[in-house]
Amino acid sequence: MAEREAGRLTPRAREIVEAARDLLEESGPAVLTMRTLADRLGIKAPSLYKHFPDKQAVEVELIAQMLAESAAAMEAAEAREPGSLPALAEAYRAYALAHPHLYCLATERPLPRTSLPAGLEDRAAAPLMRACGGDLDLARATWAFAHGMVILEIHGRFPDDADLDAAWKRGTRALH
Predict the structure, then answer these.
(1) Quick one: which of 38, 70, 119, 167 has the most CB atoms within 10 Å?
(2) φ/ψ of residue 152, rounded to 5
């Protein structure tokens, strides 16, 4: 686990995560190694292990940031337009496209649930659950649609002339 003070990251651990986030956002997950992170910080790689046991622990902190930030974006959309699936879809898409490398890091492999802060995954899902009237299966199907659309968009899998706004609208209408 990361180095913590009373349940929070120490100032140095926060600095490491901030540098990791910058590196990730600039260059993508493949470039995020303990060596490149240490180089970014101007320290030797073994020094990082005083604060994080391994790269996965750094990634867990980044995934936690993504979940908290995307939850905040969804909560803000929900506050503006309560119960609006299109508003939630727009917020989800906008967040993912603004942070594609972080989004991919957090969603293209198994979620490290046991290492995340308690309640964070539920918080991230709560606006969608409310918009789906508490129907877990419908919320999962809606998230799968949104994730599939956004990951395909991030990876440039749609033709240049595809009207993705129309596809999002049609997909959200079809699910609800």
Answers:
(1) 70
(2) -65, -40
Asked if residues 123 and 157 have their Cβ atoms less than 8 Å apart, the reply is: no
Number of domains present in the structure of the chain: 1
Domain CATH number, residue 135: 1.10.357.10
Range of the domain at 9: 4-175
Residue 60 Cα distances to 13, 18, 115, 129, angstroms: 13, 13, 7, 24
**Runs of H (alpha helix) within 28-116:** 34-41, 45-48, 55-80, 85-98, 100-107
Token pair listed for 137: 């299966």
Average confidence (pLDDT) per 10 residues, the chain, 176 residues: 68 96 95 95 94 96 97 98 94 98 96 95 97 96 97 97 96 90
Dihedral sign from CA coordinates of 31, 34, 39, 41: positive
Q: Which helix (H) or strand (E) holds 6?
A: none
Q: Which of 169, 5, 175, 170 is nearest to 87 (CA)?
A: 169
In this prediction, residue 3 carries a pLDDT of: 66
